[in-house]
Every structure is written in structure tokens, then in C-alpha cells.
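Q: Hi! Curious about what Nisin immunity protein looks like structurally. Here's the sequence.
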Amino acid sequence: MMKRTIGYGRCVLFLLLAAVFLLTACQTKEKQQVSLDTNSQTLKIKGVAYDISNKEVSEDAIQKLAYRFKAYLVLDSDNKLRQAKSIRAVMDYAKEQLDDKKATSSTPLLFIGNVYQTTDGLAVSIKDSYYKLEKTSAKSSDKLDLTALIKSSDSESRDVKLSSTNARKLTIGNQDYHISDILMSEDNLGSYVSTLSESVTFETKTGKILDKSELTKLTDASAADRTSWDYGDIYHTKENADDLVVAINNDYHLLQKEN
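A: Let's find out. The predicted structure is below.
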């Protein structure tokens, strides 16, 4: 009986390890399905090269998410595109290479997002729009110029600032917002707006942001009334282009306008 129990336990352990391995392999494969070639400014999807055309696709034509993808682009001193997988990596690069630019969350960036199935093929999310993907052709003349697009973002980008005192308040452009407790699913995310690269700890009830001196005085009892937030990307929602959400600790909080 003991040998049979041990054998059964080993079998279950083997099956669990196999399941974890297969899940990891599938996730890795999914991440590798889409890549961006900054030299040719083309997207490769499952080994097939696509040009990003300058033909915009209406939001009504977007049917469903086809492939997850995220890339941040910035221009180097030679006007060549550079990409990174996180906003922090772009900021680090900007500090090192772009001495003439101030490396902040408002540094001009170009965000390329997910690939979507449309009523007429595929489209990719760039800034506040969707652009049609077409299989690469030497005769293509309507290709989107990503370099020109990122240069134009200098005048179009909206500054995003977190309140210096309240963790639940932020400003986008000239509009103040309250960060609500209403959560949106990732499937409801629309086009990318900007990124808020901040991390704070605050009083849960009041939203008051704690400074370094206050953090060092935290006790086990007071820590229970504290919350830490890591802020990230800001998006429009698919249901309403006027609605915005902000990523916080891997959740998406709906932003509510303040008068």
C-alpha cells in the first residue's frame, strides 16, 4: 500500500510539472508571435512580415484581440528608432543618449500596442488610432512613417502628472481626474494615451501620499492602513472613447473627471 501511494504521488507530481512546462512554453510562444523591426519599420507576426500602412481603421471595424504586443519607441541622436519593452527602459535610454531632452514621463514616445482582427484583415494600435497591416511588398507606397509620427508627438503629447499630495488624483493635459475603484478588464482597453511611471505609498482612507520620513516611522499596526500603488499605462476604453483607465498594480482603474 505504501509503495502504491508513493507511486501515485510521483505520478501526480510529474503531471503537475508537465502542465507547468507546457503552460510556460505556450506563454513564451505567444510572446514571440509578434516582433517589430525598427530598421524596416515592419511587424513580423508568426514569421510573416507586415507593413504598417497609413490607412486608419475605424474603431467600429475592430472585432477582437488577435495578438498581444507592446513596444515603446524613441529616437536616438541619429534619428534612428530605438525600442524597449517597458517605459522604464526607455527612460533609462533617454537619460543616457538624449542629453538634449528631459527624461520624464512626458518625454515624446511612440507606443505600439496590440494587433486586432478587423472586418478586413489585421490592424495595430498606435497612439490613439488603429492602422491597417498589409503584407510587405516592395511596391508599397502607403507605408506609415513611424519616425515622422514620433516627431509629431512632441506637440501632440499630453502631460500626465500625479498629485503631489493625493494618490487618487492625477492630471492629464488640463483636465483633473479622480482614480475610482471601478475596474475594467483588459479586453475593454482601447487605444494608448500615455504612461504614468510612478510608485507611491499612501494612507488608504485619505489618499495622502507619504514621504520618506513618514515611511520610516511605519509600525506593523499603521502599515495595515497603508496602500502601495505602481502606476503604468493610460488607455481609452473601447466602449466610450472619452473614458480613460490607468493601470495600477496590474489592474485597470476607471478615471472620473473632476470639475
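A: A fun detail: The first strand starts at residue 34 and ends at 37.
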